[in-house]
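so my prof wants the structure for this chain in the tokens format not the other one, which i didnt know existed until like an hour ago. anyway here's the sequence
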Amino acid sequence: MDLRTRLTGALKDAMKAKDSERLGTLRLINAAIKDRDIDARAKGQDGVSDDDLLGILAKMVKQRQESAKAYEEGGRLELAEKEMSEIKVIEDFLPKQLSEDETSAAIDEAISETGATSIRDMGKVMGVLKSKYTGQLDFGKAGGLVKSKLG
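here's what i got, hopefully its the right format
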């Protein structure tokens, strides 16, 4: 089942269950996807792929993590908790995150696949990682690991 179908089904289930918190988050996800669809159609494309959808969801998680951190630092714990609950809903639709060992192995594989030998080849390695592991990998952390392995 594709991601859009899963999101639509989850939205209907949340409506039936009258789960307002989950419903609100799912509506935010749908709004972000529709915005991206409109942009894609304006550029002459059919819409966004599942990989693009995973990118949207990963970005939404990162935004909420940053917001939750800011709220905690500001003493607004109730808002931080709301952000964390939204993260849990969004993560239901993301693939399982790679462990540190799996991340390291994926980076080693990408380095050997691209033949990277120096930090100048970092873009190639990150390109391979993004094509294979979108939604499964924190690319901020992966970038640091790639640098350390190539540097």
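also thought this was worth mentioning. The chain has two domains: 3-91, 100-150.
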